[in-house]
Structure formats: structure tokens, C-alpha cells
Hints:
Distance between the termini: 56 Å
Helix content: over 70%
Oligomer: single chain
Amino acid sequence: MQSIAALITGLGLGSMYGLMALGFHVTHSVSGTVNFAQGSSMMLGAVLCFTFAQTLGWGMGPAIVLALLCCALYGLLVEFLAVRPFASRGSNAWLMSTVALGIVLDNIVMHTFGKEPRSLPSPLAVSPIDIGGQGLGVYPLQLVIPLIGFALAGALHVVARRTRWGTALLAVVQNRDAARLMGIPIKRAVAAAFAVSTVFAGVAGILIAPLFNVNADMGTLFGLKAFAVAILGGISSAWGVMIAGLIFGIAEALITVTWGSGYTQIITFALVIVVLAVRPNGLFGRSEVKKV
């Protein structure tokens, strides 16, 4: 029974990692860059949702909508300030600039929101569901998170394959010059990809906030794990990173139950190294084909 509870916990965590990793997938697919401030985007979603819902008392529904809108605006800011000036010149300095911008946001939140962790109440994280009548339970929210994660992954797939906007993004990926000649606004497409990326991270932060304390540092480790998941699944594959997130989350939960939390990070990241040594392009990624 303990393993079943751990499995459900792992599914919830893994779906959250997968959502954040989908953000890495979106920006990499459209622009060839990634947002290393993704962990800060997750933290921003959780902190803003708490502020709007608890501090200002606006209710959970409006708080979620406003928090995600702010995350989208933050994504546009990241692209405009930390990525576009460098990527347009063919420089890889965006690697450091996105990290720096994330650190700036973390410290701004720390000085305004405070250092003390806070709890975001949710009716889905109050009464655990008992499993097997042995006192081992999981919160309903842990069951909802995977459903939302896969729903968003499916929506992303449909938008990318069946809408004009998605087709335009795919055109940008395949051939920027041809897309520009067809009248597709390249800069807007890339900016939109970063907005979507940070919204995914914000959703992950809002979903996980009732199960963890909300604080300015909460996104750091989650962001690192999400990037590991993106690479593990194959950053070019949307479904790959989502499945890799589930694998990573379940592995974490089972390792914690079996050997204790002290070994969780050691074993999971060691397994990531082993998998990437065997499959350098990730579990579901494909090697890039170079035309000569």
C-alpha cells in the first residue's frame, strides 16, 4: 500500500516536472534556445496566486487567471531582455542572461514577499483519500495534477499540428528564412513561445503550491529537475518530456519510500547520467539530421 501511495505521489510530481519541461520543449523547438529562468517562472505563478487569493482576497479563480497572465508577461520580458539581444547576434550569452534574470526575480520576490514559507490552501489538499484502509492516503490534488498535465500536453499537440498558429511555429522551426518570406512574424512567434513556456511553469507552480510551501526559493531545484527531465525525454519531443517527467517523479517517490529522502537526489540524477550515457539524445529524442 505504501508503494501505491508513493506511485500516486510520483505521478503528481512527475506531471509537474513534465509541465515545466514542456516549456523547455516549446522554446527550444521554436527558437533553439531555452529559458533557464523556468524555475523562477514556476515560483512566480505560485507566489502571485497566493498574493492575489490570500493576501488580497480576490478568490482562487481570478487569482489563477491573473497569476498566469503575469507569468506570460514575464515570459515576454525574458525573451525581450535576456534572449533576443544575444540570439539575434548568434551569441550563446542567453544561457547566462536567463539564469541571471531568474536570480534577479528570485531576490525581488524574496524582498517583497518575504523569506518565510507560506501555505496556499486548496479544497483538494485538505482531506487525503485513504488507500486500503491502512492510514496511507493521497490528496485528490495529486490525482488531478496528472490529468491537467496530460490535458495541456494534448492541447499543445493539437495546437501545434492543427491550427494556423501552430503551423506557423513549425515553419519557424524548419526554415526561418522561408517562414519570413511567407509573412510569418518570426519575433512574435518566438516571443509567444516564451510566453507559453512560462505559463506552463506557472500552472505547475500553482498546482504544486498547496502541497509544498510557497517561498521565493521554491523554483530553483524544481527548475533544475525539469531541465533534466527535458533532456532525459528528448527536448525535441513534447510527449517524450511529459513521459520522462512521470518516470522521474515516480522514481523519486519510490526511492524516497525505499531508502529515504537523503538518497533521492543522489540516485535519481545518477540514473539520469546513466540513461544519457546510453542514449545521448534522450529516451524519445532523435539525433539531428544535418544536410550537406
